[in-house]
Amino acid sequence: MRTLHLLALLVTSSVLAQSYDKTDLKKVELLNSSALSLLDNSAAIITSNPNVKEFNINTESLESISFDGNLFSANMKGLEYYGLGSGTDNIKSFTMQKIQMPTVSGAYNKNDSISKVAIGIKFNVFTLYNSSSEDMRKKYSSMRADMQDLSAMARAQLQQEGYVRDTTGNYYTRYAQVLRELTEKETTNKEVAAKNFADILKAPLLTLDIASAYSMLMPAKDFNKSQSGRFGAWSTLTFTIGKGDQSLKLYGFCRYIQDNTDYDAKNNRFTNHTNFFDVGSKAQFDWNKIAVGYEYIKRNGEGKNYRSVGFVQYKVSDNLYVTGGFGKNFESALNDESVSLFGIRWGINTNDSRDW
Question: I want to staple 356 with a disulfide (CB 3.0 to 4.6 A). Which of 21, 115, 160, 330 is the partner?
Fold first, then answer.
């Protein structure tokens, strides 16, 4: 019922433009910063976000903050936003079109003596939805037809009540009220059609993301003495079991890092160019507003190093999440070995809906 009700409200806002169908982006998950992940200083390093908001702020501790932006998506319509082409006939369960929507990020981290600045970029290489192309086209067409039926019923009722379509706003105020009332009555088939298509988009079966990031470090009080910190490139494969707001996500992760952050006490500098190759996995269970997960990453290189961290997230609202991470981090001159992070994620769109 709630899914169809949200769609009906979105329909109302588009009447002036003669567009009766819009997609709701309020529930799109907030992005995890690739720049912050490079620093090994976040509650979760292994993440994937095939659908993201246009702008995000991530503060996972008092010492860290990151900003993320979704490029080239602001003017995309709903089907284009989800990588599904520009019309019903173009909808396919496998898409590589989201690679046209990279996300860029920047992060800043500071402790008592060292500041770190990082930039990053992430691409969704492909998305495979958990439904056949034909089934997706049928559900989409059914959803649009249902919403148009409701709109026609609302307009007919207003005509019977003597309302004349004008520019004063009275017509559209009453139209919104009637449409809500009709939506509450039409709860069975129409609700199923809307929810089925929304669930397919929310939980893709398989996705592949690639990302890269670069960081600089400097004394906390002297930005003129900056030097190269890290460069990293990685990929994340995500497999999802379930649909909608209840799902189990399984992740595979590999990452290459060039690291210049070993501290040379004799020369008072971070030096020792080192190459690492990280391999890891993660399991995350999402249940409505709560997500819990665990990730393990083994670092191959000099010494035995690994990360073992539990993750929890609570969705306060569609645009605000509270996160926490607890466990063992990689041993490093720049990071504490124990992870105990608590912060918030906040995301916005210039428009919370898009025309289908």
Answer: 21
